[in-house]
Amino acid sequence: MDRNIKLSDRLNKVASFIPHGTFFADIGSDHAYLPCSICLQDITAQAIVGEVNEGPLQRARETVSNNHLTDRIDVRLGDGLDILQPGEVSAVVIAGMGGSLIQSILEKGKLRLKGVGRIIAQPNNDERNVRSWFSSHGYVITNEVILEENGFLYEIITGDKQVEGQTLSERQQLFGPRLLEHKSNLFRKKWERELMKRRRIIDQMQRAKAPDVSKIAIFEKESKWIKEVLEA
């Protein structure tokens, strides 16, 4: 038994947004390290782990068994939120996937989110897709964090279900409403990179025999927004 599962900085930060005593689901759990770590430190926590493939499922079950947590962590085989019954958990974690995939998982399984007051998402890209889904389904972004790990920049987005909901502008969906409030050094580092990336894409597209004018216009608009945000 390993009572000291060492999580990455990224997963440690994700774990910090799960309240004490929560019954939560971890979708696509990567060996079930996150739920095992939380349940070892918080004896009142419980979790459901969801894996879509047999290999990761068996690895997750092995981690849970080795830590004697089979009575508090249930490992299930299934696609996304299909593993849950409505009202079964109060929080959901989806980390380490593309933002488009996270959005798709949430949309496909939205009827199973009954009773889920908090969703913690850590998209590897396309963060705006997650924010757009939150905004459209009554989840208010209450916290956003950007961190660096092994040379990569990650965003962690926490959405809490609230009656009044939240409407986000295109800019807020792109940059993050909470991240825009602080503009940390890592935020600036990310968007300086993104600005250079967009400039390269625009240059490549303009060199094409038949440039896609509409796509170029989108990248130019976003480049303008990035410059304004960085200079403000």
From TrEMBL:
The GO annotation for biological process reads: methylation
Which keywords fit this entry according to its UniProt record?
A: Methyltransferase, Transferase
**Alphabetized GO MF terms:** tRNA (adenine(22)-N1)-methyltransferase activity
Q: Name one Pfam family in it.
A: TrmK
Gene3D superfamilies the UniProt entry points to: 1.10.287.1890, Vaccinia Virus protein VP39
Q: Which PANTHER family match?
A: TRNA (ADENINE(22)-N(1))-METHYLTRANSFERASE
Output this protein's name.
SAM-dependent methyltransferase
- Kindly list the organism's lineage: Bacteria, Bacillati, Bacillota, Bacilli, Bacillales
